Amino acid sequence: MEPQSDQVLVECCLQGDHDAWAQLVYRHQKLIYNIAYRFTTRFDRAEDMTQEIFMKIYRSLDSFQKQRGEFKNWMMVMARNHLIDNLRKEKKGWIRVGGTDELEKLDFPTGGASDPARQLEQKERIEFVHDCLRTLSPDLRAALLLREIEGLSYEEIADQFRIPLGTVKSRINRGRIELARIMNMKKIRLLSGQQEPLLER
Fold first, then answer.
1. Has this prediction a pTM greater than 0.85?
2. Which end of the chain is more exposed for a tag (fewer CB within 10 A), N or C?
3. All domains of the chain, ordered by start, with CATH?
4. Cβ atoms within 10 Å of 8's Cβ, excluding its own
5. How far apart are the C-alpha atoms of 54 and 43, rounded to whole Å?
6. How far is residue 19's CA from residue 150's CA, in Å, rounded to a whole number?
């Protein structure tokens, strides 16, 4: 027996079938958790966000329109919207760094190395970049995450934020400049043996 499609399961959920919802959660929980972790960079926070996202999806099932696309894509948009809203609610834990007119190109690590030593090096680099990302303002951080980590196009990010394309490009450029400067500052502190200031998360 072939597994039921997402659309069929959604229709069953709307008729009160709790088993159908359990199947949807099981099918997509890893995807949603991975998105949540890329935004939060904390296992416990990612788990909390995953639960909140699925609750929001469940409550919004009746707004899903199959003619506008696949359920999986709709669900990912819901997840990103929730995570972006959560970032915007953050009042502390980030700093503003003055930008420059020069755009610095950042090399975002993505993993994939096969050698154990390289895997460890990449893991440390990814953790370093995410630690620096946490210091950005919520809007800049979200824009960079969607572009550099999630791989969305400028047009997709503009649609996600419901803002002009020019604003998206500006946020990403500013975010790259600020992130590059923060990373350099952190590297200098680490090399000089200075202790990192504690930030409220």
1. no
2. N
3. 6-88 (1.10.1740.10), 116-192 (1.10.10.10)
4. 12
5. 17
6. 31
What does the block give as tokens for 91?
Answer: 């009042």
Rounded Cα gap, residues 3 and 57, in angstroms: 21
| 167-174, long-range: CB < 8 A, 24+ apart | 168/143, 171/139, 171/140, 171/143, 172/143, 172/144, 172/147, 173/103, 174/99, 174/140
Nearest in space to 21 (alpha carbons), one of 65, 66, 60: 60
pLDDT tier for residue 1 given thresholds of 50, 70 and 90: low
Sign of the alpha-carbon torsion through 72, 75, 79, 85: positive
CA–CA distances in Å: residue 119 to residues 42, 126, 133, 183: 19, 10, 21, 21
Do residues 35 and 82 touch, judged by C-beta distance below 8 A?
no
Tokens of 33: 């958790």
Angle between helices 18-40 and 43-59 (to 10 degrees): 140
pLDDT cut 90: percent of the chain above it = 42
> What is the per-residue pLDDT across 110-154, written as a single tens digit (0 to 9) for each?
555 566 777 677 677 777 777 788 888 888 888 988 998 888 999
The number of residues in the chain equals: 201
At which residue do the structure tokens 């950042």 appear? 106
Contact 141, 133 (CB under 8 A): yes
